[in-house]
Amino acid sequence: MLKNYLKLAFRNLVKDKFYSLINILGLTIGVTCGMLLFLYVSDELSYDRYHEKADRIYRIVSYIREPDKINKWTSTQPPLVKTLKQDYPFVESYVRFFGRGRTMFKLGEKRFYEEDVYSTDSTIFDIFTYKFLEGDPKIALDEPGSVVLTEKVAKRFFGQENALGQILRTDDTTSYKVTGVIKDVPKNSHMTFNALMSLDANQRNADGWGGFYINSYLLLAKNADIKKLEAGFPGLYEKYMSSIFKRMGIHITYQMQPLTSIHLYSKFDGETNGDIGYVYTFSAIAFFMLLIASINYMNLATAQSARRTKEVGLRKVMGSLKGALIAQFLTESVLITMISLVSSLILVAALLSFFNTVSGKEIGYMELLSPKFIIIGLSIVAFTGLISGSYPAFYLSAFEPADVLKGSFKARGGSFFRKALVVTQFSISMVMLICTWIVYQQLNYMRNKDMGYDRDQVLTIDFQGEQPKARYNAFRKDLLDNPNVKSVASASSPVSNIGGRVIFTVESSTGMKEMAFKPTLVDHEYVKTMGMKLLQGRNFSDELPADTANSVMINEAVVKRMNWKDPIGKKIMLGTVPADGKNPPPTALVVGVVKDFHQQSLYNPIEPLIMIYRRANPVIHVKVSTKNTKETMAYIGQKWQQAYPARLFEYRFLDQDFQSAYRADELRGQIFTAFSALTILIACLGLFGLATFTTEQRVKEIGVRKVLGGSVSSVVMLLSKDFTKLVLFSFPIAIPIAYFSMDRWLQGFPFKTDISPWIFVAACALTLVICWLTVIYQSLKAALANPVKSLRSE
């Protein structure tokens, strides 16, 4: 019986090639998009799950509550996890990561800078799962002066040679012995690294509770009581930290984050992660694309129903049961879906590399052979085949044979349902169109917003370490001898990545008060080089040596936070006053106020900033002309090698750093745009199906109108009017959904664009144009047809 169903289904597909092609095309697009989005969502959900003990690993994050604000940091104090291990038996182990940042490694004459280098406890390989290519994970970081490299870094230094036992030196001339090489950290990890170093004596014994500068992880026993651990955090504050922070009005507590939830759910200052909202969004898009593709099949199948009425009538007269007819039509639907699935698998394989580029993923071809992908493919066939085939199957099998064979049957039933499906299609399509528009408007807003400084043609050179003042002054002077170098400045960090907070004692209306602020060290050329605007007071001066000890500059956010009416001359002590009052920190006066500028990306709010004067700092900013850029960079590189022959010349332009901060959202925006366009395309196929159905049902009416003198334009308007009503009806459904969805999405940005009414107007107009372009073919075809043929049987 099944073989017969398949044979008949195949014959019907071949019989009407154009109809079959449209059906298969719509389903193929929907299934392909669904599979690609499934791969994206699956990758997002896989973060950190490759660790064998992932379900028992937790990161500890800090909540620092000041009288007027709450800071949320991923960093903690060094002794925290050691203390928890001592106090709670179900804490099996811990590991801490001390960030070293960008580090230069030397092997003879070879020198390389490596990003993401950490010093860490030797217990890391007991907690996290990394594949060792060389060395023993049990002892790899036990000894001081040990380093474990990733495969990529090891090959860069040693090629195909054995790296184990080799000696590397860092830019501070410390020697490290290579004790292990591991496979590169998988991309689906919330934290990646290129090298891990053993802790030095100071890091091993660090017991200060005042500084937050490490990342801490715990490995808990199975079925450990997390609530019991969190309940003990207030006691930790009272026992170890209250003597430091209580007098400042600062309270500290912590939160346990499951390792597998960090990537999608963690939203802390300075952290770049995924977003569970996008997982839900892309999952919904995949579902709706499959649904719209299924709706297309329903519309196209019922549009062709007039051609199959006699077939149904004859089969019923010959004794065919309704159930057999339903099975036949469902078989046709599943067959089309299977053909679409095979086509989709070919397309997914062909497009995977391009999709990886667009999405920023590294999904391998072996993922297409994974059990979960096979299961999802079969599920798509079952869902799409049954959903898309169910309505036509029950609709066609309900025809009365007597009416059909007498020629008096008219397929009118279900018109409301079909129109409702088209309204649903265009409502979904319009929601996606509006959302895409607003996403790109927000991204464009962030790209073009005034950051408070001039990022164009500014390169940064990271010195990494204490910079010799005499060499810097000579280097700076040499650079300024080149007419294409406009200005040179130095700071403690790049202007776009000022992090960390320090306690200062600041003058307030109630006396000197200890509060946390962001600090940065700058020289007297910094404000000029970065194009910042001085609002009050003066800049630091090279002619006033005392500025290094008794002067600071601040931003507007400090003025607002302190509620100062006249900030110039206000006192700021560069540190906290000891409890015994002895050896207080130096007191500086505010000499200038700069306009607020973004110290990080627009995902972070502007924070109160204190600028401290130092003549030579680790990060050098160079403002260059747009003329002869290549020659200018060669000149700067030559002078760098003369001033610092032991250090590599590596630089980045600020606008590159700026763009990279929004790369993840831009990639998501590209995905959203592509699938929005495809959703509209599939919806247009559905509209085409309904146009086909309507023109076939009204062919005699059109013939009569033309015989009675009706023009082509009047017939086109007649047929287009009904479809226009359907699309117009989708507007009041789509607009509120799109508005509230995007308004909620924009709430996650401290700085955001406004949702303009013109976006909705333009989206409605564009949707109408797409609708008219879609139906005009069938309308013109019907209007231009010879009325004699349609009326011949009358």
UniProtKB/TrEMBL annotation:
Residue intervals passing through the bilayer: 21-41, 277-300, 321-354, 374-399, 420-440, 671-691, 726-746, 758-780
Keyword NAD: no
Coarse class of the protein's main subcellular location: membrane
Cross-referenced Pfam families: FtsX, MacB_PCD
The keyword Cell membrane is assigned to this record: yes
Swiss-Prot/TrEMBL keywords: Cell membrane, Membrane, Transmembrane, Transmembrane helix
The protein's name in its UniProt record: ABC transport system permease protein
Source species: Dyadobacter arcticus
